[in-house]
Amino acid sequence: MRLRYLEAGSGRMVVFVPGWCMPARIFEPQIEVLSRRWRVVSLDPRGQGQSEVPRGGYEPTRRGQDIRDLLAHLGGGRVVLAGWSLGVLDALSYVDMAGDGRLAGLVLIDNSVGEGTPPPARTRPSTFFANLRQRRDQTVRGFVRGMYKTPQDEAYLDEISRQAQRMPVEASIRLLSYPRPREFWRESLYAVRRPVYYAVTPRLRNQAELVAQRHPQPTVEVFDGAGHALFVDEAARFNASMEDFLARKAAWA
């Protein structure tokens, strides 16, 4: 199958992997700014953006393999791999199968990495999957709006919402049901000996503090005023942090 990616700039490479059902173009604020100095690549994972929509492969091993295939296709030396939301888990799946040999650094944006105590069990089961099956368009549009704390253009929100519904609904649900214990993600993270940048919103503050204590080369940052898409809500701050990580902390040698 064919996977599509966006690419801009030249030099040392940073590769972005977006979250659940999201397109590569969601990283446009980073592509525009970081490509002035770096080679920036943003992946449309299988079934997302403008990549092909296959019947299967919506599980962590195949998604990690897709990242490995992308890096092999791009060639070159080390890269900084940056995953957001579900892309955090896809990046850690890549690390589990391929190790950190290709990595100059790992950037994880606003998802759990399995640190600390598990969240308390829900008193009621979530209705999100049922809503996806029964009222998909309304549910996805509400999800997309909820990713931001800053006002976004209506045409932009509409396009992101429409692209987020390309894959079959049951495939989108499988993406949210990865068959891995939370310890898998933590062990995958700490197997990475390269520098790590963990950027989170306040709900993950405790995990960020633990990563700062336990990883040998950590950078952690809490975006208190941002939504889940913190790299859009606070693009200037996030881009400045990425520039610093790429220029001063990543292990390119």
Automatic annotation (TrEMBL):
Pfam (any one): Abhydrolase_6
Q: Which Gene Ontology MF annotations are present?
A: hydrolase activity
Record bears the keyword Coiled coil = no
Keyword terms of this UniProt record: Hydrolase
**Sequence ranges assigned to domain AB hydrolase-1 in this UniProt record:** 14-240
Q: Note the SUPFAM superfamilies from the entry.
A: alpha/beta-Hydrolases (SSF53474)
Name of this chain's protein: Alpha/beta hydrolase
What organism is this sequence from?
Neoroseomonas oryzicola
